[in-house]
Amino acid sequence: MKRPRQDAAGTAADRVFSRIVSDIHAGVIRPRDAISERDVVGRFGVSRTPAREAIKRLFERGFLRIGPRRVAMIKEITEKDLRDLYELRLRLEADAANLTAKYVSDEEIAELRRINREFTLAFRARDLARMLDVRAQFHAVLVHATQNSWLAKVLIMLRDEAYVVRHAHWEDPARAQQAIEMHQEMIDALATGDAARYRKLTLQQIKDGLTTYLSRLRAAR
Questions:
Q1: I want to staple 194 with a disulfide (CB 3.0 to 4.6 A). Which of 96, 119, 168, 189 is the partner?
Q2: How would you label 76-114 residue by residue, b for 16+ Cβ within 10 Å and e otherwise?
């Protein structure tokens, strides 16, 4: 039996959509940045049809809004959006922290130490893109250690949606240095089986990130 032929435009649209979302999460594309069909065609070397389809999906997923002169722009996340997101995230992260502390393996702890060393090197090089990527690896190991794949998927999604907070957090050298130290404390708590300490540190880091971002947001008004 022959496989159904995959639509080439659909494949290109999938690729472009995924690349743009990744760039938004990584801070390459920022809130209020304009994005047009012509830009997408030129940047990704695709025809107008997949470019148009990718932009349509970005609107459907809530990444874009219509700005001045009917120009598509990356949507800003409001303070209410962030507070709602973090309220949910903190509840789930508390449950996840208990599971991580219970099930984390020696191999995963060793991997966390390696990742934190790599994060330190990226920080010293002031390589924000690398810092974001390495921090995502750190988070992935922690949520994988919960041994609950559904919880892990939801937490990764919520973390991705909080990209504006992460960018502000890691762009501040003092905050990044504190994060390295806090990561080490989290690893040590896991290594010694101190679940309460690990949970407290995990939630504190999340709260600190939101507090820092909202303070900057209000100061800019």
A1: 189
A2: ebeeeebeebbeebeeebeebbebbbeebeeebbebbee
User: What CA–CA distance (Å, rounded) separates 41 from 45?
Assistant: 5
Report the distance separating Cα 212 and Cα 204, nearest Å.
12
The two tokens of residue 94 are 């508390």
Residues 20 and 96 in one domain: no
Q: Within 10 A of 70 (CB to CB), how many other CB atoms are there?
A: 6
Q: Decide: 166 and 85 in contact? Cβ < 8 Å.
A: no
Instruction: Judge residue 13's burial from the number of C-beta atoms within 10 Å of its C-beta, 0-12 exposed, 13-18 middle, 19 or more buried.
Output: buried
pTM of the predicted model, to two decimals?
Answer: 0.75
The total domain count for the chain is: 2
* Residues 187 and 89 placed together within one structural domain of the fold: yes
CA angle, 35 then 71 then 166, to 5°: 50
CA distance 216 to 221: 9
Tell me: the pLDDT tens digits for 3-39?
Answer: 444 455 568 888 898 888 878 776 778 888 899 999 9
Give the tokens for residue 109: 């702890």
Which CATH number characterizes residue 62's domain? Answer: 1.10.10.10
CA distances from 88 to 81, 83, 92 (A): 11, 9, 6
Are residues 107 and 66 part of one domain? no
- Output the pLDDT for position 4: 42
| Residue-number span of the structural domain to which 32 is assigned | 8-74
Determine the pLDDT at residue 32: 84
